[in-house]
Amino acid sequence: MPANSWPDNNSYDELENLNSLLADLTEEEESEVEVLQPLTLPSRFKNRRRRAAIVLTIVWSGTVALHLVSWGTLFVLGLTTVLGFHAVVMVFASPRPKTEEMNGEYPYVSLLVAAKNEEAVIGNLVKNLCNLEYPSQKYEVWIVDDDSTDKTPQLLAELQEKYDNLKILRRKPESTGGKSGALNQVLPLAKGEIVAVFDADAKVSQDTLLRVVPLFQEDRVGAVQMRKAISNASTNYWTKAQSGEMTVDAVLQQQRINVGGIGELRGNGQFVRRKALLSCGGWNEETITDDLDLTLRLHLDNWDIELAFYPAVEEEGVTTAVGLWHQRNRWAEGGYQRYLDYWDLILKNRMGTRKTWDLLLLLIIQYILAIAGVPDLLMSLARHRLPILSPLTGLSISLSMLWMFSGLKQLRQEKPSNFFTYASMLLQAISGTIYMTHWFIVISFASIRMSVLPKRLKWVKTVHTGHTHEL
């Protein structure tokens, strides 16, 4: 059932009624629901440019006002204190208990990959996924060939003769929806109670399913995201920096989950309970970041998302500055877009107080602060004073360095450490934090572009070389 089959209004009540009906469907009835034709595009996915322009106007005018009123500095210091207190709580939060071993019968798992022109990596991917340590009769691998024009179709045909659990769906040239459309199309054919999504350049350890699937024994868990790692981190500065960035992201998510906040999906290495996926409408074909959009809809539907720190899913990092710019702009736009799409549902506290609070604080530190940076800098130059948001910026940078150092330390696990080891990790954390400041520029640019230019669903493909995936 495509995500754009949501009720065509701004109310969540009709969706809640649909969810209760889906929960009681038999397997046969559920299959019928999945292939229903999509309804009219919901109104919440329209007028994104107008919403973005309204937010931009409010944030910019509010930032200018803070420079002009006498209590502006006190307001910023107060907000910094609140965010700092929340950060301290996150730092000292104890890990939540997780079920690490399977009790009872293993559930059926479907591994899905949407691939387009992936001849360089598809062979290694199939070999990897078709040889996991899991009962062979309990999992399948689906490759959706999204009308590839290279040798991907021929390679898949050869691989299908070799692996019994490999299944292939070839999309037609006129198919729409991108990755989301491909996943929605294959979902009715997949049999898994749990559906996992991997990118074509993914690489996982053989015990991945044995370690991730048991986490779904908790009824509240609707999805699990594997920690992402960069397989070609040693290639150059950009890939090494991305490796540190993935570490920051994993540690931050881990601590957010520990305090009852939001766990997030990251596309590659995401596992979703089929019932949860259907309850919130499948993958949204009206977004450029299906993982971030699905994250929010799962939480709005009262599901939790867990993080599997171990094992990690490896993927190729972008090797050029231009490629990184395109990728990060897409991530920034998609992440910001979901706030514009679901703002009313977030403010209605449908996720619960802790999750809503966590999400709003992330919005401030990750998006609002970056958007406000332009007028803050201009006003500081005009008035010959420091940017009024300097305390918030300093807190953001400090937290980034803290999470990166913590992540590097956690990755070492039981390995012995000494002064030089910690000094090396600190230098790496400082270097990585400097790199992370690029998000201020990316988000500022994306928010302005979204406010001015018409809606776009442009996706620039990340080219995979396969040079780091010799198995």
| Percent range of helical residues | 40-55%
Assigned CATH class of the largest domain = Alpha Beta
The largest pleated sheet is described as: 7 strands, mixed
Q: How would you classify the helix and strand content by structural class?
A: alpha/beta
CATH topology of the largest domain: Spore Coat Polysaccharide Biosynthesis Protein SpsA, Chain A
Strand ordering within the main sheet: 3-2-1-4-6-5-7
CATH architecture of the largest domain: Alpha-Beta Complex
Q: Give start-end ranges of low-pLDDT stretches.
A: 1-40
Q: Per DSSP, what share of the residues sits in E-state strands of 2 or more residues? A: 5-15%
Q: What radius of gyration results from the CA coordinates?
A: 22 Å
Q: How many β-strands, per DSSP?
A: 7
Q: What's the CATH H-level superfamily name of the largest domain? A: Spore Coat Polysaccharide Biosynthesis Protein SpsA, Chain A
SS element count, helices: 16
- Tell me the count of domains: 3
Distance between the termini: 36 Å
In N-to-C order, the SSE pattern is HHHHEHEHEHEHEHEHHEHHHHH
- Overall mean confidence score, pLDDT: 86
Give the overall silhouette.
globular
